[in-house]
Design goal:
The complex is a heterodimer of chains A (about 110) and B (about 200).
Chain A lengths: L3 H21 L3 H26 L9 H31 L13
Chain B lengths: L3 H23 L3 H21 L3 H26 L12 H24 L1 H6 L18 H10 L2 H22 L9 H12 L1
Helix pairs in contact in B: 1-2, 2-3
Classes of the chains: A mainly alpha (about 110), B mainly alpha (about 200).
Chain lengths: ~110, ~200
Amino acid sequence: MFSLPALLYLSALLFSIGIYGVLARRNILVVLMSLELMLNAVNIALVGFGRVHALSTTSGEHGGQIFTLMVLAVAAAEAAIGLSLLLLIWRRWKTIDLRELCRLSG
Amino acid sequence: MSGWLEHLVFGILATVSVLSSFLVVTRKNPIYSALFLVVMFAMVAGIFMLLDATFLGFMQLLVYAGAIMVLYLFVIMLINPRDETLPDEGGTSEKAFAAGVSLLVFALLTFGISNSDLVTEMTTPGGIPALAEVPATHGAIEAFGYELFSKHLLVFEVASILILVGIIGAVHIAMKQRPASADEDDSNEERLVTDV
């Protein structure tokens, strides 16, 4: 069924898969990809809500879509910064294993 | 597009996106994860287009499947992970903990969605209504652009500054660090850099 709850359930499912990826994996690259996955899940919910909200307005405004555009910009900036940090970690310690970086905790 | 075809297309897009995102988090080699992530982004773009968010669908393809994935693949190529350098993934207890937390989050979200008065109120029988039932300007790229540059101009400006900061930050972080005790070659290189 293509309805608002179906979209929200899909969004929740993708978000939980992203949480599993962030918690279970030790590869920083895959953890960053899981973050992108979670942002995408939120985008689906935002666009779905915006589409249904447009029904009750007279001008058919695009609030949800504009919020999604903002999330897209945040995701792009996050990917750039995260990957450059990953490169720096690789250059210094020759590892992409998160558990080997626990020396940061002292 | 209306009726059963819309439901069918949504079902296919949702199934493929869930399957490929599951493969993203379970593949050991990050190259396979990246390729399945492209599939997932394309499916989400399809869902956006189904929701009459044409511009966002194209942006999703351009920004995510185009730009961000190229960035990921470049980093994977630079690091060139081989099987012996890939980190050992955690044992079953670690995976069980992660699966438990994600199932808990999913259960809470599902409970919230199915019990929300707002969602019930917003749900229309027979699925998301066709474009003809919403105001005609919704979904048109012209109307979207007009609204973005008039009513939500601040959002646009903040997003552009955010991306600018992101680019400068990424370049600064990933720049070659100069060693503290520079030998002959490095000091030459340093002088060249300061000259430029």
